[in-house]
From TrEMBL:
Keywords: DNA-binding, Signal. This is DNA-binding beta-propeller fold protein YncE. InterPro entries: 6-blade_b-propeller_TolB-like. It comes from Povalibacter uvarum. The keyword Signal applies. One of its GO terms (molecular function) is DNA binding. Residues 1-21 form the signal peptide.
């Protein structure tokens, strides 16, 4: 074998090794904001693309109810608290900024509401739409084929309680809303101007429900750049789903995204807040993980998470991704979750890759 041939084989071997070594880009996170001392469990986050102001809504579901202090908070781009509006005992889930208003899914009241983007402590909260029990309350059973040739027949229960969770506007003003308990996606046409607003059940599907330990099915929503595909997280199943618009069918895009919660499409990728993995992952449109940001690194001396702990949602502000650290204990057992030790709740952030 000549020296030239050896050099060629070595170059091919090195190139092959480099290709096989490629994997998701790993990013570190840093603490960005400490919420006011009387506010806990930041669940959802959005931003105004013009002013870059950041909005945060909380999921405070403590018992007894009179201890709850649910808030909508407004921050400047550099993390200064500008205003807050109380929502009392009703926990909040998805929020989105649109045309000068913040649209809020009031989970506890089963309503879509809005407040002005420049809200203050006494700003009017306007009801836009209400959600109720569907008939039947649970979606159809899910039939699962197993490798050994057997089949599982998963039947879902539901008491008819709407669990409105994620929301996403398209460019025309149509709003899509997920229901985590009833396995549904709703559509509200002209949601910024409709009076009264009609809630249409766009689809119900067994893939939108879950029998997992995390009791939330359909969760975060996102649209691709062309707005031809609606992406849906199923938190309990750890899946990202895709549904061609206007009517499907729904299929699985990605598996094993543990606790797939908030979802956004940004710079050609799907950014998933994986709340049970304490990470934010970015998937390409084929479902392959390309970026993984953050990890849980402990509780600091102020009682705040270091890194990510139960991240629930994200928003992009300039070159930064801002993350809501929900840090919500899930189990009734004392001492089994780090979330139980949190006494100060935070937003984290990381630099977006170029």
């Amino acid at each position: 074998m000549t020296r030239t041939t050896c050099t060629l084989f070595l170059a091919i071997a090195l190139a092959s090794t480099q290709v096989h070594a490629e994997g998701p880009l790993r990013l570190d996170v840093e603490q960005f904001v400490s919420l006011p001392a009387d506010v806990r469990h930041p669940e959802s986050i959005t931003s105004d693309p013009e002013t870059r102001e950041i909005y945060v809504a909380t999921f405070d579901a403590r018992l007894p109810q009179n201890e709850r202090n649910n808030q909508l908070l407004r921050y400047s781009e550099d993390g200064r608290l500008l205003s807050r509006r109380g929502f009392g005992a009703t926990p909040l889930t998805g929020i989105e900024f649109r045309d000068g208003y913040v649209y809020v899914l009031n989970f506890g009241a089963s309503r879509l509401q809005r407040v002005p983007g420049r809200f203050h402590a006494a700003s009017e909260i306007v009801d836009v739409a209400s959600f109720g029990a569907l008939a039947p309350p649970a979606p159809a059973p899910r039939l699962v084929s197993n490798p050994d040739g057997s089949k599982d027949d998963i039947r879902f229960g539901s008491a008819g309680l709407p669990a409105i969770n994620g929301l996403k506007f398209d460019r025309s003003g149509t709003l899509y809303v997920s229901d985590s308990f009833q396995g549904a996606i709703y559509r509200i046409a002209d949601a910024t101007t409709c009076k009264p607003c009609k809630v249409e059940t766009l689809v119900r599907d067994p893939l939108l429900a879950t029998a997992g330990a995390l009791p939330f099915g359909a969760n975060g929503l996102a649209l691709n750049a062309a707005e031809s595909i609606l992406y849906i997280n199923n938190a309990g199943d750890g899946r990202v789903l895709r549904m061609p618009l206007p009517s499907g069918p729904i299929s699985v895009l990605a598996e094993s995204v543990h606790g797939a919660d908030g979802l956004m499409f940004h710079r050609g990728m799907l950014w998933v807040a994986a709340n049970q993995a304490d990470a934010v992952v970015a998937l390409d449109e084929q479902g392959r993980e390309r970026v993984r940001a953050g990890a849980f690194m402990g509780i600091d001396q102020h009682g705040a998470p270091t890194g990510l702990l139960f991240p629930a949602s994200t928003t992009a502000v300039g070159d930064w991704m801002i993350v809501a650290n929900l840090a919500l204990p899930l189990t009734p057992t004392a001492g089994d979750e780090w979330e139980e030790d949190v006494t100060r709740w935070t937003l984290a952030r990381f630099k977006l890759p170029k």
